[in-house]
Amino acid sequence: MTVRPALNVFLCAPRGFCAGVTRAIDVVEHALRKFGAPVYVRHEIVHNRFVVEGLKRKGAIFVEELSEVPDGEHPVVFSAHGVPKAVPAEAGQRELLAIDATCPLVMKVHREAEIHYRRDRMVVLVGHKGHPEVIGTMGQLPDGAVVLVESAEDVAALTLSPKEALAYVTQTTLSLDDLAVVVDALVTKYPDIIGPQKQDICYATTNRQEAVKAIAHKVDAFIVVGSPNSSNSLRLKEVAERHGCPHAQLVLRASDIDWLPLAGVKSLGVTAGASAPEILVEEILDALSERFELSLNTVTTATEDVSFPLPRALREKAALDEQA
Fold it and tell me: Which CATH number fits domain 6-17+203-300: 3.40.1010.20, 3.30.465.10, 1.10.510.10, 3.40.50.2300?
């Protein structure tokens, strides 16, 4: 009988689904129950292929643009990342039944940007070019009203006048460490720039990164469960490496684990991005238990009790379901 090597596994808490992701998935599932299949979803509702495939099996149809949705009063859900204003406007013109699953914390950033614009401020958005959330935030304002920066180098290249009225907002899923560098560069170059009254990085991103920081220097390797196109999951991998972990890998499923770098490790950290369901963490642990004798330890750095209500169009149906 082969003796499995011992492995201390440190589970980050909190990890996995945040309130915005839970709400977005609930929106699609409630829409399917209320209206029946198909329910169209513009863009991935959250960045996790396992979740998306599960919703497809229930009758959701994912599209990239509204032009892929046939005419008629079809329900169309906008993803948790938010959309440019032109998207709901197009849905209204076509008389589609639009249901907005944008995370309320992303909506907060949208409102901040709009307020700054109404007060004649140029808006600087700190975020990753091409990310759906960034596209949605920039799309709240007219062309030219928002300038995007990703790094301190981008800030150095800005040609805005220090005398111009400026404000900044941020993508909600950035690395806290990376953001601090960019904001420091902005404030140094533009001392009068106005920032958010409360930081735009969402509570879930902050909590998951802090949990990883608490463990990273104690373990030989780290597994982050999440999709490669998930910004918050990618940041967790970077945070683990930056804070002392010799090896970190981002995996969607257990089948994606690269076992070679894990040979000989004595301790391992495990977390999950905000769009990764707990069932995938359990799958990872099952795969680890086949190769190692596990000792599980949960490291809790915060307790989350946040929840967001469903969009108004779905609340009545949800209430009736609960009564049934």
Answer: 3.40.1010.20
User: Is 133 an annotated catalytic residue?
Assistant: yes
Please state, in angstroms and as integers, the Cα–Cα distance from residue 17 to each residue in 85, 174, 252, 255, 321, following that order: 27, 17, 14, 21, 23
In this prediction the pTM is 0.92
pLDDT digits 0-9 by tens, 254-271: 999 999 999 999 999 999
Q: Which CATH number fits domain 19-103: 3.30.9.10, 3.40.50.11270, 3.30.360.10, 1.10.3810.10?
A: 3.40.50.11270
pLDDT tens by residue, 4-45: 999 999 999 999 999 999 999 999 999 999 999 999 999 999
Backbone angles phi, psi at 191, to 5 degrees: -60, -25
Q: Domain 105-189 classified CATH 3.90.550.10?
A: no
Strand intervals (E) in 165-314 = 166-170, 221-225, 248-251, 267-272, 293-300
The active-site residue out of 29, 95, 133, 304 is 133
- Specify the 3-state DSSP secondary structure of 146: strand
| 6-17+203-300 and 105-189, same CATH topology | yes
Cα(185)–Cα(147) distance, rounded to whole angstroms?
15
Reduced to 3 states (helix: H, G, I; strand: E, B; else coil), residue 323 is: helix
